[in-house]
Amino acid sequence: MLLTKEANKEFSSFYNMIKKMLAALLLTGLCTITSAQESYTVKGLIVDISTENPIIGANIVGNNIHAISSLNGEFVLTNVPKGTHSLEISHIGYMKEKFTIAVNQNIDNVTIRLKEAVTNLEEVELLGKSEKRKAQELSTISIGVSKEFLENNRENSLMQTLRKIPGVSTISIGSGQSKPVIRGLGFNRVSVVQNGIKHEAQQWGNDHGLEIDQYGIDNIQIIKGPASLLYGSDAIAGVVDIQPPKVPMPNSFDGEVNLLGETNNNLLGISTGIQGRKESWFYRGRITYRDYGDYKVPTDKIYYEGYIFDLHENHLRNTAGMEADASFSLGYVSDHIKSETFFSNVNAKNGFFANAHGLEVRSSSIDYDSSDRDVDLPYHNVNHFKITNNTTIYKGLHTIQLDLGFQNNQREEHSEPVPHGYMPTPPDSKERVFTKNTYSLNLKDTYKPNGKHDIVLGVNTEYQNNNIGGWGFLIPAYERFVAGIFAFDHYKINENLHLQGGLRYDVGLMKTMAYTDWFPSTVSNDDGTTSSVYLQRAQKRNLDFGNLSASIGLSYLKKNTTYKINLGKSFRMPLANELASDGVNYHMYRYERGNIDLDPEQSYQLDFDIDHSTDLFDFGVSPFFNYFENYIYLNPTSNYYETLQIYEYTQNEVLRFGGEARIGSNVTDALRLDASVEYVYSRQMSGPKKDFTLPFTPPLSTLLSANYQFQDVYFLRAPKIRVDYRVTAAQNEIVPPEEKTEGYQVFNLSAMADIKLFNNKNPSQLRIKLNNVFNTEFYDHTSFYRLIEVPEPGRNLSISMTIPF
Question: How far apart are CA 139 and CA 133, in angstroms?
Fold first, then answer.
């Protein structure tokens, strides 16, 4: 690194010397040939006043002077006569800015900041609606997540990165896995969509995270509330829609290198992506690799089930892992068609906390403290391969979109081969193996007969085949087919009042396969004798489902305020684990049993949203009311199987309400303050747990943030710091056998700045984050490891850099 700095310094000195010599020669030549009229060069940068992002294509116009800002917002005015000049800077979507400059020498440090304009509807219709305007006109409660947000808030997994969004939380296990939770509902009640295709893995499991590379994502739309109308079953609580990146500009090539290091788990990561385009053909590619050790918690002892587990140097043993991802896409674009085929493969190996898998580790011979970077038993291997194609055809008043997808998810759960109950010592460490193939097809036609209607007709189909292996049984192999047809209309009553509504009908078929134990068990007969039999855990059954979804809503835009109301009815088909599980879940220390007679969940939800935004101040509030006719719930019973409590899936009525509120202010041009609060109330209205809440219900939480933007400091451009203060209340509303969780307060700090490296046109981005500044010991009620009294990670310093090229 020192050699590189010295070489850069020498090169910079040599470059500056040459530049000065050339400038001197040029000046001498000009002095001999120019007339009395002197002229100079003015260089500068055009940026957004709020985000400091460069603005591309801004026009700089003066008297016989003109320039256009480049890809990195820079502009050059040549042959500028000596004197005072008035310039007008303009760009679509921004307010015009007038700028006066006195020129008597070359100038190269002009920075002009433009404010976003509030454009009237006629101009928007003529030039095309912004993404913000489109979201405002929809009655659903949606939040756009930009690439800038993802880069500035990146954590160890995609869902942990999104946790700062009000109403979004996670169920986490370890340092590299987490699953989405929207307003207290998770698992298969939240659909994750990538490039138009619903991500399908083993998301029914508490310890199963998302197999998605969070690098290279430009835009995510999060829908809070029922979205089955457009996305089908499993979108009963909301959607995380990871949208395709924008098509590269013609005859372009660029890329980036992302570097990441963290202290808590000694993580080292790198991700490199490229993209390019000729005229019509374009491509993208990315490779990501991350390797991390056991993460540290702010305690040296774990207390669970009457046992005390000592932690070596605060490391949560066997939580190390690695992730290797690769993706490539090839696309074609013209005036009438756009098509892109995307290939990706995500591979991960993660250890499970060694004292958390059935507690067998108490008698294990494995030395878990020999290294904090190795992965011992128990662990899992996951490989997710995906091919998708997105094709859009523009044909007159119709826009036809076709999405095709194939996914193969291979998951292996390994644990130490020890006998369990009547089960003898297994032959190997493969406790469970799941092999899931998913085929998807979506077809949608958007028809705009006039300026009033946007009519969408579509169909979604999906076929799944999930096979099982290993010596431990939990869910049977199954086949699943779902198909739905929907119609949706977005009707513009007037320029600022919009009505949306639609209907959808789905059918589903589920075929579960029979399964019999590979070992005999001793059972009691009616006559008092015992027999040794091979127990049948699952039967071959064919089930079919059908249901109706509907949605209607209004959005009203009045100056700087948007009002929304939406009523939706959604459904969710029961899963194989809910219908036919019959085995020990050692991750959860319980015996789980399905119910083949379950009906599809049906949910009714009413959403409101008010959003007000000006240059200096903004606020929003989003309350909701939610009723389930037949919420599917894993209920603990008073029965036991081989010392493990039996949990059975059942259904009951559930009432939920809550919402989010936020407020923010640009106190000065440099200082911005934000605050948000979120709350969910859940109550079971019937069944064995009547008057109790639901499991994993997040408590009341508040996030306070302060952002300060500095002027350029030496080589740091537009540096800024952010302070986050999260205050979470205690969660005393629990459903047995959950434990109450105490409230907590946590400070996080972050700093970021742009840096010019290697004479690149686009600056590199440096980010430094310090999470859990005071190494606070606290428990997250929605964390998987909360069940065994494991606190959240301790203090963590992370340094990341994005280097464009």
Answer: 12
8 Å CB contact between 53 and 26 = no
Q: Residue 514's pLDDT is what?
A: 96
CB-based contacts of 278: which residues, under 8 Å, 6+ apart?
A: 250, 251
Max distance between CA atoms of the chain, in angstroms, equals 120
Query: What b/e sequence results for 66-82 when a residue is b if at least 16 CB atoms lie within 10 Å of its CB, and e otherwise?
Result: ebebbebbbbebeebee
Average pLDDT value for residue range 175-190: 85
25: pLDDT strictly greater than 70: no
Give CA separation, 351 vs 318, 376, 382, 463, in Å.
5, 7, 12, 31
Angle at 166 between CA 161 and CA 169, to 5 degrees: 50
CA distance 324 to 215: 12
**Max mean pLDDT range (365-369, 459-463, 590-594):** 459-463
The 3-state DSSP class for residue 166 equals: coil
Cis omega before residue 378 (within 30°)?
A: yes
The whole-number average pLDDT for the span 147-166 is 88
508: which 2 tokens? 């589903």
| Half-sphere CA count of 624, side-chain side, radius 13 A | 30
Q: Which letter does DSSP use for residue 319 in this model?
A: -
Cα 102 from Cα 84, distance rounded (Å):
4
- Count of CB atoms situated within 10 Å of the CB of 275: 22
Q: Does position 72 have pLDDT exceeding 80, yes or no?
A: no
The whole-number pLDDT of residue 119 equals 46
CA 222 – CA 114 distance, rounded (Å): 29
User: What is the spatial distance between Cα 63 and Cα 482, in angstroms, rounded to a whole number?
Assistant: 65
Query: What confidence tier does 129 reach under pLDDT thresholds 50, 70, 90?
Result: low
Provide the pLDDT confidence category of residue 338 given band limits of 50, 70 and 90: very high
pLDDT of amino acid 2? 41
- Give the DSSP letter of residue 28: H
Nearest-angstrom CA–CA distance, 48 and 237: 35
**If 0-12 CB within 10 Å is exposed, 13-18 middle and 19+ buried, where does residue 84 land?**
exposed
The C-alpha angle 495, 500, 501, rounded to 5 degrees, equals 160
Structure-token pair, residue 796: 């963590």
Question: Residue 219's closest CA among 199, 240, 239, 242?
Answer: 242
pLDDT band at residue 20, thresholds of 50, 70 and 90?
A: low
Question: Which H helix or E strand runs over 349?
Answer: strand 337-351
**Number of DSSP helices (H) and strands (E) in the chain, helices first:** 7, 44
Let me know: does 234 contact 223? Beta carbons within 8 Å.
no
**Could you write out the three-class secondary structure of 623-647?**
EEEEEEEEEEEEEEEEEEECCEEEE
At 176, give phi and psi (nearest 5°): -125, 5
Distance from C-alpha of 316 to C-alpha of 4, rounded to nearest angstrom: 38
Q: Are 225 and 173 in contact (CB under 8 A)?
A: no
What residues have CB less than 8 Å from 383, skipping those under 6 apart? 345, 346, 347, 348, 408, 409, 410
Sort 198 into a burial class: Cβ within 10 Å, 0-12 / 13-18 / 19+.
buried
Average pLDDT over residues 30-48: 65
Contact 286, 215 (CB under 8 A): yes
Neighbours of 707 (CB within 10 A): 18
User: Cβ distance 161 to 150 under 8 Å?
Assistant: yes
Cβ-contact 321, 294 below 8 angstroms:
no
Answer yes or no: are the C-beta atoms of 103 and 42 closer than 8 Å: yes
Radius of gyration of the chain, Cα coordinates, nearest whole angstrom: 29
Read out DSSP for 264-288? SS--EEEEEEEEEESSSEEEEEEEE
Number of C-beta neighbours around residue 596 at 10 A: 15
The predicted pLDDT at position 26 comes to 40
Name the phi and psi angles at 473, rounded to 5: -100, 135
pLDDT on residue 54 = 83
Q: 3-state DSSP helix/strand/coil percent for the chain, to nearest 5? A: 10, 55, 35
Residue 573, classed as helix, strand or coil, is coil
